[in-house]
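User: My collaborator sent over this chain with a note saying "see what the structure looks like." That's all I know about it. Can you take a look?
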Amino acid sequence: MSVYDHREHKVTRRNFRPALSCVGACVFVVAAGLLGMSQGFSPAPARESQIVNDFGARVTRYLELRKNEAGTPPKPTNSPKKLADSQEQMAAKLRAARADAKQGDIFTPEIAEYFRHQIAAMLNGPHGARIRASLRHAEPVQGVPLQVNQTYPNGVPLQSMPPTLLLNLPRLPKELEYRIVGHDLVLHDITANIVVDFVPNAIPPS
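Assistant: Without extra context I'll predict from the sequence alone. Here is the result:
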């Protein structure tokens, strides 16, 4: 399992206002075209707030649909089979309710670029080397093709976001979490174990 358990940062997922403790003056030195857009994307504070609020509203709509279509999360149980069955039932209901869901429904192009910018800022900042070291030591997940609504594959580690990097992203409600798969950032439904949406190429190469 990842050295970063979601319990380490669940207390930080109560609202959608980005934490400010890691905001600073960062110089973006980009050698590859992958970061080109992130380098030039620096929204004004008012626009940044609108982007974060838009993201929060989209997440809220997903959770409302989840509640209406899939019901409440299954009750805790000591039976792995019952837990797996309840999880799959919830996931199946969500897949049916979101049959037309696609990448970008929550992470729109502008929201996705905001996330890339925030992540690049941290990786190019004073904590960048430590964050990359954390990613390398947290059982990196590679080669898993992502698809919205898919169940996260059994047996594949759930790589968490390093807490330092998490501080610079919008906070999530307790039902959801960020995960890393390769260079992609995943919005993961914890109980249903499905990919809600993802940001391709969110983590730039070393």
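A starting point for your reply to your collaborator: The mean pLDDT is 78.
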